[in-house]
Amino acid sequence: MSLRAWAELLRVSALFTVPGDALAGAAALGVRPNRGTALAVGASLCLYEAGMALNDWADRDEDAVDRPHRPIPSGRITPAAALTAAAALTATGLTLAARAGRPSLAIGTALAAAVWSYDLHLKHTPAGPLAMGAARSLDLLLGATATAPRTRAPRATPARPTPPPAPTPAHGRGRPGGAGAVRKALPAAAVLGAHTVGVTVVSRQEAQGGSTLAPLAALVGTTGLGVLTGRWRRGTPASAGSLAAGGLAAVYVGTAGRPLAHAALNPSPPLTQRAVGGGIRAMIPLQAALAARGGAAGTALGIMGLVPLARTFARKVSLT
Question: Which of the 8 DSSP states describes residue 125?
Answer without folding.
Answer: S
